[in-house]
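Q: Predict the bound structure with glutamine.
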Amino acid sequence: MTYRECYEKGCLALQTAGIEEATLDARLLLEAVCGTNRNDLLAHGEQLVTPEAEEKYLGWIGQRAEHIPLQQLTGEQDFMGLTFAVNEHVLIPRQDTEILVEEVLKQLHDGMRVLDMCTGSGCILLSLLHYSNACEGLGVDLSADALEVAEQNAETLLDAANADRVHFLQSDLFDKVEGKFEIIVSNPPYIASAEVEKLMPEVRDHEPRMALDGTEDGLHFYRRIIEEAGKHLVSSGMLFFEIGYDQGQAVSELMRTEGYREVQVVQDYAGLDRVVFG
Ligand code: GLN
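A: Predicted complex:
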């Protein structure tokens, strides 16, 4: 088949399967398989695709039609201008989370130590290290499989001179954490269990449940992290969270009750509450 025939077959299969962005995904998968970009595909639409590429492409289209997220097929997702490896063991980095990283960057100074709780792919921590000069980072997660992905990302994204600025630790929240930090940041699982069931199949059935499910009211991990973080923050330290659009008040209250001062809620570009810090 030619590029064009492949693309058209891919579009049709994804549209038939009810995939939301069928044509976009068909193109992105073809580009990923053939190592080309959009302009090449347009300019060389009548060029034949190698049999290997065709087979791989149609395989991916079949999997995408079963609602497997595109990023789990290509194995990557861009975040903060960096390309992160992902697989089924980590939450796919979301653009919304860039707001959290930007808020932390405003407060990050040379020599600070940063803890990223529930680090997943490591996207938050590694972006912070990439865009700040002299801070050190610890990424914590309960999942050993997720930490493998984070380690891999650290290897690709930090050059040899900076590799020892980051460490990862398998721990149930703060259980095995030692020492104090200037900044603790977290994008914990925060979706109420009943709401997880209503998510699109790509997320509900293919992203790790443990990265999404914040238990009955969605606030379980905020409560635990807020309670335990104080022991690991220096006295002027700061705690940053990503939150769901309707959790700004609840999480601010939890922080104030625990003694955090200057608690603020930050909105995302859609005008929704997205970050709380104090
Ligand atoms: N920290 C990672 C991210 O923001 C993973 C978050 C999670 O698994 N809840 O993408």
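A: The pocket of glutamine is lined by residues 91, 93, 97, 118-121, 123-124, 187-189, 211 (CB under 6 Å).
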